[in-house]
Amino acid sequence: MKNLLIVASPKKNGISRFILSILDRQEDSEIIFPYELNIQACTGCEACFAKKNCILNDDMTKVYKKIEAADTITVISPIYFFGFPAPLKALIDRTQVYWHHPLGKKKKGLALMIGEMPNVFFIPYYEKIWKYIFHNWGIENFKLKVFGSTKTKNDIDKTEVKKLNDWLKES
Questions:
Q1: Residue 67: Cβ within 10 Å count
Q2: How far apart are CA 90 and CA 121, in angstroms?
Q3: What pLDDT, in 10s, does the model give residues 91-102?
Q4: 168, 74 in Cβ contact below 8 A?
Q5: Which terminal residue of the chain, N or C, has fewer Cβ atoms less than 10 Å from its own Cβ?
Q6: Quick one: average pLDDT of 101-120?
Q7: Which helix H or strand E contains 62, and what residues bound it?
Q8: Cβ atoms < 10 Å from Cβ of 69
């Protein structure tokens, strides 16, 4: 089983990397750090409507291959002003190609979002947005966990992270 993990925080010692350390990663896991990649913003040119690829030439070429090859995709992201960090947003926007050319719906997904505020009122928004993002990536079966009121690594429930990871590994 190929596992793709996307860690959207720029902090190498932050809570997102701490969550990554809790996950039971198998040998066939790949990790993407959007802050370390050169991903241009989508220009909305819609060239991907006619072709099954984006005309922009950057690190997304490798990311597309990893998304397509993955059986499971986990995204770990801090919440920045109730949304995603800009590099993750650029990556997500560039997967518009899959809206026009859908992937098969065989993957499983897990979205783990971390915020200092409780964010309880935004959970329906996050559920809807991840539904559409994951749909684009060939995922219909997914779970979302928002870790609100999280200021330190001690605020993360390790048992819950492990349970979500176990769910992801189930066939």
A1: 22
A2: 25
A3: 999 999 999 898
A4: yes
A5: C
A6: 91
A7: helix 60-69
A8: 11
- How far apart (Å, rounded) are the C-alpha atoms in residues 14 and 96? 30
Fold of 3-169: Rossmann fold (3.40.50)
Distance CA 98, CA 138 (A): 8
Beta bridge partners of 30: 4
Find out whether 78 and 9 touch, Cβ atoms under 8 Å: yes
Alpha carbon 36 to chain centroid, angstroms: 15
Contact 50, 27 (CB under 8 A): no
pLDDT number for residue 57: 95
Does residue 27 register a pLDDT over 80? no
Contact assessment for residue 162 and residue 24, using Cβ atoms and an 8 Å cutoff? yes
Element (H, E) at 127: helix 123-136
H helices present in 23-118, as ranges? 47-50, 60-69, 86-94, 96-100
Whole-prediction pTM value?
0.95
Average pLDDT over residues 114-128: 92
Whether 55 contacts 49, CB under 8 Å: no
Pair of tokens at residue 112: 């783990």
Collapse the DSSP code of 75 into the 3-class scheme (helix H, G, I; strand E, B; otherwise coil) and give the result.
Answer: strand
| SS3 label, residue 156 | coil
